[in-house]
Specification:
The complex is a heterodimer of chains A (761) and B (700). Chain A has 761 residues and is an alpha+beta fold. Chain A is built from 21 helices and 22 strands. The longest helix of chain A is centred in the N-terminal third of the chain and has 29 residues, at 237-265. Mean pLDDT of chain A is 91; it is low at 1-17. Classes of the chains: A alpha+beta (761), B alpha/beta (700).
Chain lengths: 761, 700
């Protein structure tokens, strides 16, 4: 049967046909150029401390109700564009996990409102718009009604390479009134390896496809050459295409909504509203800080270990590195917050370099979950925080040549420290319930891909090709840390997305055809110990079937450092690890109804039910792309959150529940909590031996007392180690870098440890 | 309370109320009927024989779940390795029912307690892949062991859910087969339920949960339903007793699965709306319901309302098909507070509900509510709220609004009250706008009906910013949801995930047509069997097939009604027409730019509904009078109301005495015991021969 002669089936007519009249620059408000608007805005903020110099919110004060209505309408338009557009997308990452976000910006590039979704993008687009203004696109490249721009260049405003932004300028008559921006996270961007958070790349040229504030279409249509570049530049052209359609459709919906709003309220009211909304965001942020935090200086440090001496591919990356991510947060009596990362490590030969925009985006995604969940989140909040991400450091390299594929590793580690600073502030103010000791570090568990064998591929529609990408976002369900009055949330938290979802196996396997999941089980002993324990993680097991040319890797942060330690005596969550078994007898076992592994519990038991030519147990959970054959096994896990308070203060009844729910095993409970009893695993019934428990707890207290030393002794011992540089090569890498990067930090270090002025590590 | 709503063939209705009797619901049901019929001077036993049917819609099942008072002792067999899925709740269960700020606020997230303890969940090694191929055959010894273990634990039911069983049910059937053998050995009659039989739709977590809910919260109601049925029959009922489902029909209490009846109360109005579209010849209708705690909206487009699967009940993800209904948490009882940090009024999400507000002299509410604002503005009659059952103290409302809201904002209390309503009504308008736009339409394409106790009071406010074709308010607005329940057809609905691919060049259209035809025949037979069981002639059943379709690769599908193409089978040409319809709908909803015909198409779910006609109310039909002005006896006096910055003298009318053909000119308030309609200055409401008001703005 041939295709019917209906225009509906003709791809040529499926794109929206619209023509726009060009406008003559200047396109800013009241005859200004965009550059003039931006200069004025920066100048007014600098001079008055208020956005656009608005020390009073005139519109809001005169008509608070209309003002609020406009805000809710604007955010409603963003949320509804997002909810509609995400149906168009192909990637489960977008649909299941909602890695899609829309924003509206002022003409000069300040974010006014953001949809639900991954709020990390609230600020990133701002930098890209400002770049276009400063590079005078207005007169050069041209900014016209119906134009479409794209950016994923991290150095100019993006979180990481696989986040792709589509910008649409919104004109009203001859003026640019706002920008719409849609972001999706791509499952592949054509980098040196498969995957959406690469670990192997060490510089920009290995990252994959970059668009640098590029004009990619006009009259609402994408250029043919741009579409071809995208299609040919990534491993998953269909996903790329559908995700792009999704972003563009959403931006167009937002444009329509804004036109409707302006028709109703008039353009002057709309403009006034945009500016006041940003200034209000700034004021709300200050009020919230004042309301919930205690003035003072808070200090914590994040660390990110990269043990790559025997792992990395590129010679330059084959070393053990430790990134230092110190955080100093200052809160003053007026609610101003300062965030200072002086002393951060220099950028390195890895993909964890993090642009300033990524750090700022991460600040918003974290603050919206902990402090600003009931406020307005926009660039006003950004202006209320004075940040120092030191130039030339790993948190602001200012160097486009670096690889920025996976800055999340840096973000997760840094914001654990931010979390503790905030938590100490909440605690000091009496908000025990708001404390977050930290979170399981959500490295992107599994990535890679493979091809279906011809025999299986016949069952798959041709349009989809034979390549299946691996990128399940089930790692967005980690354990959350405890608060100061409650246990942490089990298997339900991701620092990057407040709306965490594991997704169904039946959904993920719709796209990762050759990778079959064999289990997803709660992993005992991942939760951090404490009076209030952290949330638990889980472990998963996969095998490969019907495929060839399969390679996979895991990006994981090993959770072995102070960053994830608990608070007030709580412990960190368990460390992650991975197990791979190659050339297995899984097929023979399955055929003979002989058991195959469903977990690695107790740890080390996985091999009891499988035989393989090669078994690799990886202590830090991270491994570089590795080939997999059919029936190979891959075991990975998510992490638990840290605990709060002394484990000996946890009531034994709570530990009974923990054991019966697989959160902890009886041996660990006895060892850490001193709770002794009998466990009937079959009926999941733990009986506490009260007498033995009391005795064991007493013993633990005595053991502790024996190990105790005075602070002076401890300091002297440690100082000696510092003097002699008695540490491993990862730590050496860290101190070398930090001393080179920041004289200020080096000096403070020498002073603290009472070292000579010429001390270097 | 147990409410009953009795409607006669002329749409006269009476409402009865009685205390709910949870131990034996039939007692309360009968009392409620007696109470309602008492207003007509009769009782249930006197009139039972004249009833055309009784439809039950209740919240007992949902309450059982919310209060965790369902029946335990449930055993589960699932794919080994995935025994924890139920308690992990896909993560989403920890935040699914929270407000926007709650969703963002990590510390508020909490998993619901699992309904089945972990020791009652057994895994059996097996795997089926996404194409339905059994890539690891099921381990039969493990089945045997699991069944023995669960029976040793004395479970009431064994619920079986294996991964990809919707694509291939063989492994689940094998579990059942072996379980039957074991039961026979043990002389045991514990039922074994399969997810592939209950609801073969993709998504193993919601599929398993739905099966568990059937056992935990639903099945325990079956006996109650029988007891109500028996009681009513003992009293002389001679017509069917049926239960309302959330997807839009009624089913018999002895239907195989009742999970679809879990959440049916709020949806009744949509069926009433559907009934009106048929009777009044309306294509597109927005159904809007203002209740005490929420504002609910559903869209009927070209005579149909869409269905959703991905709903959570008491935080638990399910795949129960439900009429698509969007809710925002602002209702008449929503609490009002000023957020000190942002100096902004926050509405809800919690609510005083039936306690009304500070102005209720009989309750001890301390925080002002939306109703307090309407009281202060003169919209409701302090002496006639709920027919005078609740005395309203306007001064108390004023004081609370002044102290807790207005003074913080530096505003006048009256201005503040009106400002609150502006925000509430604008939020409602935004919700309407976004739902209509979400389907690719504009408000100009729709009529809107407003109902619920608070609907007529706020209709002018929330429709004013939008340009609907017509805004209608039935004079029985307060009871419209119950009226809608009486309008529902007898219907059995079956969903089946299919995942059929149609090539972009349509080269396999004939084959696709055959596959879908086969699936539809199967579900049609199931529906016919259900009707035969109910004693209804299968020939009277009308079969309404629909598909969900998407461009291959996209992850979300659209429902396409295909009744017009169905003549007992589908042909290749039909498939082309269906795709054309799909493309139209897709272009409208998602913007044409997103169409991707080059990838081909995928039919994801086949939906078949068997519908049998059931008795329905008729609309009131009065001869219109020639006079625009309502009769003198309808005039109750005047009251000052506040609107757009001024006080106006409004006529107060008694709704019952307004005659068809009359026009109520604003400013006016019409009052009935259960609802109040506000006709602001610059508006008028004309009452047509069906006793439906048409609210229009005259000063534009």
């Amino acid at each position: 049967m041939s295709k019917p002669e209906s225009e509906l089936h003709d791809p040529e007519t499926t794109t929206r046909e619209r023509e726009f009249d060009d406008v003559e620059p200047p396109i800013g408000w009241d005859g200004q150029t965009l550059q003039e608007m931006l200069d004025e805005s920066e100048h007014l903020l600098e001079e008055t401390g208020h956005y656009r110099g608005l020390d009073e919110l005139e519109f809001k004060e005169q008509d608070p109700f209309q003002y609020e209505q406009m805000y809710s309408r604007l955010r409603g338009a963003l949320v509804s564009a997002r909810e509609t557009a995400l149906h168009v997308s192909a990637s489960p990452i977008v649909r299941e996990i909602g890695e899609l976000c829309f924003q509206i910006y002022t003409p000069e590039g300040d974010s006014v409102a953001v949809s639900t979704g991954i709020i990390v993008h609230v600020h990133t687009g701002s930098l890209a718009i400002k770049y276009m203004i400063e590079e005078d696109y207005e007169h050069g490249r041209g900014i016209q009604p119906g134009d479409v721009f794209c950016n994923n260049d991290n150095d100019l405003g993006n979180v990481h390479t696989t986040d792709v932004h589509t910008f649409v300028p919104i004109f009203y008559e001859d003026e640019l009134v706002a920008w719409a921006d849609g972001v999706t996270h791509e499952i592949d961007i054509g980098g040196m390896t498969r995957g959406h958070d690469q670990i192997a790349s060490t510089n920009r040229h290995e990252d994959g496809l970059y668009a640098t504030c590029e004009k990619i279409g006009e009259d609402d249509q994408l250029y043919q050459d741009w579409r071809d570049r995208g299609q040919r530049g990534v491993r998953t052209p269909m996903y790329w295409d559908l995700d792009e359609k999704c972003r563009l459709a959403g931006c167009h919906m937002i444009r329509e909504a804004i036109h409707e709003m302006i028709d109703e309220v008039g353009v002057d009211t709309f403009k006034q509203f945009l500016y006041e909304a940003v200034e209000e965001g700034r004021q709300i942020m200050e009020s919230r800080v004042k309301e919930r935090m205690f003035p003072g200086t808070y200090r914590e440090a994040g660390f990110h270990p990269i043990q790559w001496e025997d792992k990395a591919w590129q010679p330059g990356a084959q070393q053990n590195m430790m990134n230092h991510l110190p955080v100093e947060m200052t809160i003053d009596g007026d609610g101003e917050m300062e965030l200072d990362l002086e002393g951060a490590t220099p950028p390195g030969p890895h993909p964890f370099n993090c642009a300033e925009g990524s750090m700022e985006g991460a600040l918003w995604v974290y603050l919206t979950q902990s402090l600003l969940h009931d406020g307005k989140v926009n660039d006003g909040a950004n202006y209320a925080v004075d940040t120092n991400y030191p130039e030339g450091s790993v948190v602001n390299p200012q160097d486009p040549d670096r690889s920025y594929h996976t800055p999340w590793a840096t973000i997760f580690s840094t914001y654990l420290a931010v979390s503790k600073c905030l938590s100490n502030g909440f605690f000091s103010r009496g908000f025990r319930e708001e404390v977050i000791t930290g979170y399981g570090e959500p490295g992107d568990a599994l990535q890679g891909g493979g091809k279906l064998k011809d025999s299986v591929a016949d069952a798959i529609p041709d349009a989809l090709g034979d390549y299946w990408p691996v990128g399940p976002f089930d790692f967005s369900c980690q354990g959350l840390g405890a608060s100061a009055c409650r246990d942490g949330l089990d298997y339900g938290y991701a620092m990057f997305n407040p709306e965490a979802d594991l997704g169904d196996v039946e959904e993920w396997e719709q796209t990762q055809w050759g990778l079959l999941q064999l289990s997803r089980r709660v992993k005992p002993n991942t939760a951090g110990h404490g009076k209030y324990r952290g949330g638990s993680g889980w472990e998963g097991l996969h095998t490969v079937m019907g495929s060839e040319d399969v390679s996979m890797y895991a990006f994981s942060i090993p959770t072995v450092t102070w960053s994830s330690a608990g608070m007030s005596g709580g412990y960190p969550g368990g460390t992650s690890y991975s197990v791979r078994v190659h050339d297995t007898d899984l097929a023979e076992r399955a055929a003979a109804d002989e058991p195959y592994p469903l977990d690695d519990q107790p740890v080390g038991s996985l091999e009891d039910q499988i035989e393989g030519e090669e078994v690799i147990r990886d202590q830090d959970g991270m491994f570089f792309p590795e080939e997999f054959e059919n029936h190979d096994l891959l075991r990975y896990q998510t992490s638990g959150g840290p605990g709060w308070g002394d484990p000996l203060e946890r009531p034994p009844e709570k530990l009974k529940e923990d054991i019966e729910e697989d959160i902890f095993t009886p041996d660990i409970v006895e060892q850490v909590y001193g709770v002794v009893g009998d466990y009937d695993a079959n009926d999941r019934e733990f009986t506490i031996d009260e007498e033995a428990t009391e005795q064991r707890r007493q013993e633990i207290r005595e053991e502790r007392a024996e190990r105790t030393q005075s602070f002076d002794e401890f300091f002297d011992e440690e100082r000696e180690r510092v003097e002699e540089s008695d540490w491993n090569d990862g730590i050496q890498y860290m101190y070398d870098g930090v001393f080179e990067q920041s004289e200020e930090w080096a000096e403070e270090f020498r002073e603290f440890w009472d070292l000579d002025d010429d001390y270097s590590p | 309370m147990t409410d009953s709503f009795i409607v006669d063939e002329e749409a006269n209705y009476t409402v009865g109320k009685a205390q709910t009797t949870p131990d034996d619901e039939s007692v309360g049901v009968k009392k409620s009927f007696d109470n309602g019929l008492g207003y007509w001077g009769t009782s249930f036993s006197e009139s039972a024989a004249s009833l055309d049917g009784v439809v039950y819609a209740g919240t007992a099942m949902l309450n059982r779940l919310l209060e965790r008072e369902g029946e335990g002792n449930i055993g589960v067999i699932t794919t080994a390795g995935f025994e924890d899925h139920h308690r992990m709740g896909r993560g989403i269960a920890s935040w699914a029912d929270l407000s926007y700020s709650g969703r963002l606020h990590a510390r508020e997230h909490e998993h619901p307690d699992p309904l089945v303890p972990r020791e009652n969940i057994k895994g059996v090694r097996e795997r089926v892949n996404m194409l339905g191929a059994p890539v690891v055959s099921i381990y039969e010894d493990e089945i045997r062991e699991a069944v023995h273990d669960l029976l040793d634990r004395d479970v009431r039911v064994i619920a079986v859910c294996m991964i990809f069983s919707y694509a291939n049910p063989e492994h689940e059937q094998k579990v059942k087969e072996i379980a039957e053998e074991v039961k026979e050995e043990r002389n045991d009659d514990t039922p074994v339920w399969l997810s592939s039989e209950q609801n073969p739709v993709r998504g193993e977590t919601p599929r398993l949960n739905t099966l568990i809910l059937e056992a935990y919260a639903v099945e325990p109601s079956r006996e109650q339903l029988y007891s109500i049925e028996d009681k009513l029959q003992d009293e002389g009922l001679d017509s069917p007793f049926r239960v309302l489902t959330s997807s839009g029909g009624t089913i018999a209490p002895d239907h195989d699965w009742l999970a679809e009846t879990m959440l049916s109360g709020p949806i009744g109005g949509v069926f009433g709306g559907e009934f009106l579209t048929e009777k009044l010849g309306i294509d597109n209708l927005v159904c809007s319901d203002v209740g005490g705690t929420s504002f609910d909206v559903a869209l009927i487009t070209e005579g149909h309302y869409p269905t959703r699967w991905d709903q959570t009940l008491a935080q638990i993800p399910t795949n129960i098909p439900m009429t698509a209904l969007d809710s925002i948490g602002s209702g008449t009882g929503s609490y009002l507070r000023v957020d000190r940090a942002s100096n902004r009024i926050e509405i809800g999400p919690d609510s005083a509900g039936y306690l009304v507000g500070v102005s209720n002299e009989n309750a001890d509410v301390e925080t002002p509510t939306v109703t307090d604002c309407t009281a202060l503005l003169g919209y409701i009659n302090p002496d006639f709220f709920l027919g005078g059952d609740i005395p309203i103290d306007v001064d108390a409302a004023r004081e609370a609004i002044d102290e807790q809201l207005a003074s913080n904002l530096g505003e006048d209390p009256v201005e503040t009250a009106r400002g609150v309503l502006d925000i509430v009504e604008r939020d409602m308008a935004n919700e309407l706008r976004s739902m209509v736009h979400g389907l690719g339409y504009a408000p100009e394409n729709y009529n809107l009906i407003s109902y619920g106790g608070g609907g007529p009071l706020h209709a002018a406010g929330y429709t004013k910013p939008l340009n609907f074709k017509d805004v209608i308010v039935p004079d029985w607005a307060a009871a419209f949801s119950a009226f809608g329940t009486a309008c529902a057809d007898s219907a059995y609905r079956y969903d089946q995930s299919v995942d059929v691919i149609l090539q972009p060049d349509f080269s396999n259209a004939d084959q696709v047509a055959d596959t879908l035809t086969g699936v539809f025949h199967k579900v049609r037979d199931k529906a016919a069997d259900a009707f035969v069981r109910d004693g209804i002639d299968a020939d009277k059943m009308e079969f309404q097939p629909a598909v969900r379709a998407q461009y291959t690769g996209m992850l979300d599908d659209l429902e396409v009604e295909i009744e017009e193409f169905w003549d007992g089978r589908l042909s290749g040409e039909d498939i082309e027409q269906i795709i054309e319809k799909f493309e139209d709908e897709f272009g409208r909803v998602f913007q044409r730019a997103a169409r991707s015909p080059e990838n081909g198409y995928q039919f994801t779910v086949a939906i078949g509904e068997g519908v049998a006609p059931s008795p329905k109310p008729t609309l009131p039909n009065e001869d219109p009078v020639s006079s625009d002005t309502p009769p003198e006896q309808a005039h109750k006096g005047e009251r000052a109301i506040y609107w757009e910055g001024d006080w106006h003298d409004a006529n107060i009318w008694d709704m019952d005495h307004i005659q068809a053909g009359n026009v109520v000119e604003g400013p006016a308030v019409t009052e009935a015991p259960a609802t109040t309609m506000l006709v602001p200055p610059g508006f008028e409401a004309s009452l047509d021969h069906n006793r439906i008001y048409h609210l229009t703005q005259t000063n534009e």
